[in-house]
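Worked example 3 (structure in, sequence out).
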C-alpha cells in the first residue's frame, strides 16, 4: 500500500533546502518515527547526510537518469513500511526538466513543501509563493516554509502578504541561524560520515525545527497520499547466478556509490566485500572482481599513495585480466598519479598511462548517455548507458587508451586496459540492470 511521504523543495540552490530537510528528518526520527530518506537527482553527498541523521540508507530518485519505472520501483521497495518518507529536491523546484523535483513529485504523487529564503524581501515573498503554487496545476504545493527570517516584524509582514494573496499555507518561519549551516568543499557539502553538524549543531537544528515548523501538519499532509496499491513489482530485476566475491573500495576517499547499483550486483549473485585503500594493505581474499567508486582521492592522495602494497596488488590483479570497474575517483586512483591543487604529485596504481591533475574550477558537469561502441564489462556494443559526470580534475593530454563508448559531444569515455573499464562517468544501472548482471558474470569467468 501507499505510505506517508513528502518532498521538500527549494526556490533555488542555496535557499537552505538541505539544512531544513535534515532538520525535518532528524526531528521526525527523534519522535521515534521510522524515516526513510530519498534524494531527487544524481547527488552522492546529500544522501550521506540523510543517513547521518536518520540511520537509514538514502536512495537517489532520478527520473531522467533512471527512468520513471525504476524510480517508482525503488521508492516503493525502500519506502514500504516506513512511518514517513522524506525526499529532498534538487536545485529549484522546477529546474531540470524530467530530472526536476517537480517532475518527481508528479511521478510519485507527492505533496511538496517549498523552502523560500526570505532574506532581503518581505511582502514580495507572496509573489514568489503564488508563482510556485500556480505555475503547474498538476503539482500539489502543500505548504511554504520561510527560511532566514530576520525578526518578528519581518515574519508578520510576510505572513500577512501570503495570507492575502495566496491559497498555500505557511507551515514554518525559521529564523536566521548560521551556527547550523553545513560547511562545503569543491564537490559540494561535506559528507555525512564527516559529521559536519558537530557538537550541538544537530540538536540545535532539531530544536529550531520543532519550535518554528508545524511538523504535525506536515505529517498529516504526508499521510493524505492516495492509498492505492503499488503496481510495481519488488522482485529481482536480474537473474541470480552462482555467488561471486567482489571487492568494493569504500572509505573517506572512495565513498560515491549509488546504493541501487550495489543492490543490483547483489541480486545478480555478488557478495560485496568492502575494503579501505586508506587503511588496508591488501584487498579481501578470494575476490573475483573489483569495484572502485568515486569520492575524494585527491584529499587523501598522500595516504593512499603511501599504501604501496595495496597499489601493487591492485595493479597485479588488473594486469592478470581480472574484472575491474572504476568510476571518477576510482579511475583517478588507477592512473599514474594525482596532482593536487597545490601542485604536489602522488603516485597511484599506474594501470592507465594518464596523470590526473586537480583544477581550480569545475571541469565537467551533467547527465551523460554513453553509446557503447566496443564490448566491455558492462554492456555489448550498441547499448546506451546512463549516468552523470561531475569532477574538477583532468587527465593529461597526449596519453591514450582504447575507449568503450563515446558521448554526445564526441569525447571518448570508458577506458579499456586488459579487463578493466574505468572513466569519469558515474553510471546508474536503473535503466540497464543487465549491466550489473554482465559485470557479475564477467567475475565468474576464470582467468
Amino acid at each position: 500500500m501507499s505510505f506517508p511521504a513528502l518532498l521538500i523543495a527549494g526556490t533555488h540552490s542555496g535557499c537552505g533546502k538541505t539544512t531544513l530537510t535534515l532538520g525535518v528528518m532528524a526531528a521526525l526520527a527523534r519522535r521515534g518515527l521510522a524515516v526513510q530518506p530519498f534524494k531527487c537527482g544524481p547527488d552522492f553527498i546529500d544522501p550521506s547526510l540523510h543517513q547521518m541523521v536518520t540511520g537509514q540508507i538514502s536512495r537517489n530518485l532520478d527520473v531522467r537518469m533512471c527512468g520513471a519505472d525504476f524510480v517508482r520501483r525503488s521508492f516503493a521497495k525502500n519506502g514500504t513500511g516506513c512511518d514517513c518518507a522524506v525526499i529532498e529536491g534538487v536545485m529549484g523546484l522546477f529546474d531540470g526538466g524530467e530530472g526536476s523535483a517537480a517532475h518527481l513529485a508528479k511521478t510519485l504523487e507527492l505533496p511538496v513543501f517549498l523552502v523560500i529564503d526570505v532574506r532581503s524581501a518581505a511582502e514580495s515573498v507572496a509573489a514568489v509563493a503564488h508563482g510556485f503554487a500556480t505555475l503547474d496545476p498538476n503539482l500539489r504545493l502543500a505548504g511554504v516554509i520561510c527560511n532566514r527570517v530576520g525578526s518578528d516584524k519581518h515574519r508578520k509582514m510576510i505572513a500577512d502578504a501570503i495570507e492575502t494573496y495566496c491559497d498555500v499555507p505557511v507551515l514554518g518561519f525559521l529564523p536566521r541561524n548560521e551556527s547550523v549551516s553545513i560547511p562545503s568543499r569543491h564537490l559540494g557539502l561535506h559528507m555525512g560520515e564527516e559529521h559536519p553538524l558537530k557538537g550541538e549543531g544537530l540538536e540545535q537544528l532539531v530544536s529550531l525545527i520543532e519550535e518554528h515548523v508545524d511538523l504535525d501538519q506536515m505529517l498529516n499532509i504526508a499521510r493524505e497520499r492516495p492509498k492505492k496499491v503499488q503496481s510495481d513489482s519488488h522482485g529481482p530485476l536480474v537473474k541470480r547466478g552462482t555467488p561471486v566475491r567482489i571487492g568494493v573500495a569504500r572509505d573517506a576517499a572512495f565513498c560515491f556509490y549509488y546504493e541501487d547499483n550495489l543492490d543490483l550486483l547483489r541480486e545478480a549473485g555478488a557478495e560485496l566485500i568492502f575494503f579501505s585503500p586508506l587503511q588496508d594493505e591488501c584487498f579481501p581474499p578470494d575476490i573475483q572482481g573489483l569495484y572502485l567508486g568515486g569520492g575524494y582521492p585527491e584529499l587523501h592522495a598522500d595516504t593512499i599513495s603511501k599504501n604501496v602494497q595495496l597499489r601493487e596488488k591492485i595493479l597485479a590483479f588488473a594486469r592478470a585480466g581480472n574484472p575491474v570497474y572504476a568510476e571518477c575517483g576510482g579511475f583517478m586512483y588507477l592512473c599514474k598519479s594525482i596532482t593536487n591543487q597545490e601542485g604536489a604529485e602522488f603516485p597511484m596504481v599506474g594501470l592507465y598511462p594518464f596523470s590526473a591533475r586537480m583544477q581550480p574550477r569545475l571541469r565537467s558537469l551533467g547527465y551523460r548517455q554513453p553509446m557503447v561502441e566496443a564490448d566491455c564489462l558492462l554492456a555489448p556494443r550498441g547499448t546506451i548507458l546512463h549516468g552523470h559526470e561531475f569532477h574538477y580534475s583532468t587527465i593529461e593530454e597526449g596519453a591514450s587508451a582504447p575507449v568503450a563508448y563515446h558521448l554526445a559531444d564526441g569525447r571518448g569515455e570508458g577506458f579499456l586496459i586488459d579487463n578493466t573499464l574505468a572513466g569519469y562517468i558515474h553510471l546508474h544501472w536503473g535503466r540497464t540492470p543487465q549491466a550489473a548482471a554482465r559485470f557479475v558474470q564477467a567475475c565468474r569467468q576464470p582467468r
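Notes: Residues 17-30 form the longest helix (14 residues). The first strand starts at residue 5 and ends at 10.
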